[in-house]
Amino acid sequence: EAVQYLEQHSYTKDELLAYEEYRDAILVQRAFIEDAEEKGETKKLIETVIAGYQNGFSIEQIQVYSKLDRKQIEEILKSNNIKK
Predict the structure, then answer these.
(1) Which of 6, 11, 21, 35 could form a disulfide with 15 if both were Cys (CB 3.0 to 4.6 A apart)?
(2) Any idea of the CA torsion for 70, 73, 78, 84, to the nearest 10 degrees?
């Protein structure tokens, strides 16, 4: 980190601006990737809740495996037009 600090202070203003823009672009890209991963995990969880319920698992059983509470499971089922 100290080397990076020294390198940054030897940059010209234009080089430093370009470096900061590059760094910001990397941070934004990482945020997009993390968000996509979260959405993917959420989608899988929703699909698992629905499949479990449609295959005869009780809400209580789904709670154990999904780590969701009853209200969350019921909301997933309701928002996907699955009748209890």
Answers:
(1) 11
(2) -70
Instruction: Write down the pTM of the prediction.
Output: 0.63
Residue 31, both tokens:
């945020």
Q: Which long-range contacts (CB under 8 A, 24 or more apart) does 22-30 make?
A: none
Q: 2-26 burial by CB neighbour count: b if 16+ within 10 A, else e?
A: eeeeeeeeeeeeeeeeeeeeeeeee
Structure tokens at 21: 């823009």
19: CB partners within 8 A, 6+ apart = 8, 11
Task: Indicate if the pLDDT at residue 7 is higher than 70.
Answer: no
